């Protein structure tokens, strides 16, 4: 097989239904990975504006050294379609990126039930609603699942996969391979829960932030600054479990012993009763120690510090686009 044919064999035909921020980002990711993309939106203005908006994102990526191709080359792989049928007729992966309204998603999936190809994987970018709530009654249900990306997906390269009980294992595995192939890290959400994981974590922070503003404890800008220059900077390198594991000599087990009661009191103050039981702490500790043996703890702490230093240095170095904007 020639190299050109080999490359062609590795391509899939993708269709994106919805040309908002999420839809345009997903189209960019697939096109940047070399796949042909059909992009559809019922709003003609959205369709008309999509190529220019995607092009701007590609230009910005290039200015930071994050795009190895010419923007025009990536854009050439994206075709705007005037109908759902035209967009998805030959697609092997379909990603619905419409409004977060159950009736809208149900209507779109009912359309897809009649016009998607027989082998197509059909995903929804729903932020909170399960696939069972709007696709379980369809003949295509075994090929349906949630694929919820962070916003914007072309920068935050993580996506939650949430199958329903009726989603086939083959669909889940194919979706995982396809999405990892365009540069996304897949997170398997093992139960259909509202908001999945990303928005539950985000919601927990927002709920407390709103309460702190309501109670006159701190201002909106001060909370944003605290997260931007403190929690967020640290979380850009390590997640919340690894954060407390590395912050405490003795690791996460010692952190739970020292601060677990204080966190329980904070939760009780907000009417929440979810204590860190000994069994739960043991499970978390076991997973952390499997990922990082305690003997490697000092080296990982030093690594974290260097990564935060690199992030701080990056903040102080303007990109070519930033320089042009202020000149």
How would you summarize what this structure contains?
Strand 6 and strand 7 form a beta hairpin. By secondary structure, the protein is of the alpha/beta class.
Question: Whole-Å distance between the termini?
Answer: 51 Å
β-strand amount: 5-15%
Tally the helices: 15
Indicate the radius of gyration in whole angstroms.
22 Å
The SS-based structural class is: alpha/beta
- Outline, from the CA principal axes? globular
Which runs of at least 5 residues are low in confidence (pLDDT < 50)?
A: 1-6
Helix and strand pattern:
HEHEHHEHEHEHEEHEHHHHHHH
Q: What would the CATH topology of the largest domain be?
A: Rossmann fold
CATH architecture of the largest domain: 3-Layer(aba) Sandwich
Largest sheet: 8 strands, mixed
CATH superfamily of the largest domain: NAD(P)-binding Rossmann-like Domain
How does this structure look, described?
- The protein folds into two domains: 3-188, Rossmann fold, CATH 3.40.50; 236-326, no CATH class.
- 55% of the residues lie in helices and 11% in strands.
- The protein has 15 helices and eight strands.
- Strands 3-2-1-4-5-6-7-8 form an eight-stranded mixed beta sheet, with helices on both faces.
- Helix 2 (21-32) packs across helix 3.
- The model is unreliable at 1-6 (pLDDT under 50).
């Amino acid at each position: 097989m020639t190299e050109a044919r080999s490359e062609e064999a590795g391509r899939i035909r993708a269709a994106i239904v919805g040309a908002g921020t999420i839809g345009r980002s997903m189209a960019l990711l697939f096109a940047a990975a070399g796949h042909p993309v059909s992009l559809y939106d019922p709003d003609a203005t959205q369709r008309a504006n999509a190529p220019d908006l995607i092009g701007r994102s590609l230009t910005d990526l290039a200015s930071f050294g994050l795009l190895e191709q010419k923007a025009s080359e990536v854009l050439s792989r994206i075709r705007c379609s005037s109908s759902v049928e035209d967009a998805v007729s030959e697609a092997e992966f379909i990603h619905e990126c419409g409004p977060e309204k159950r009736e809208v998603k149900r209507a779109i999936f009912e359309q897809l039930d009649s016009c998607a190809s027989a082998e197509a994987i059909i995903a929804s970018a729903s932020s909170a609603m399960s696939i069972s709530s709007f696709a379980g009654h369809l003949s295509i249900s075994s090929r349906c699942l949630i694929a919820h990306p962070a916003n914007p997906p072309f920068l935050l390269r993580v996506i939650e996969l949430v199958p329903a009980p009726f989603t086939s294992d083959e669909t889940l595995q194919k979706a995982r391979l396809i999405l990892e192939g365009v540069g996304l890290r897949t997170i398997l959400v093992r139960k259909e829960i509202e908001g999945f994981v990303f928005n539950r974590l985000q919601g927990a922070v927002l709920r407390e932030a709103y309460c702190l503003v309501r109670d006159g404890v701190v201002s909106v800008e001060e909370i944003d600054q605290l997260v931007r220059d403190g929690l967020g900077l640290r979380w850009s390198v390590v997640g919340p479990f690894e954060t407390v594991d590395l912050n405490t000599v003795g690791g996460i087990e010692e952190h739970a012993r020292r601060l677990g009661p204080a966190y329980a009191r904070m939760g009780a103050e907000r009417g929440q009763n979810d204590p860190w039981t000994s069994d739960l702490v043991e499970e978390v500790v076991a997973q952390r120690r499997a990922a990082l043996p305690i003997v490697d703890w000092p080296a990982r702490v030093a690594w974290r510090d260097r990564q935060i230093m690199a992030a701080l240095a990056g903040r102080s170095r303007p990109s070519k686009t930033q320089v042009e904007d202020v000149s």
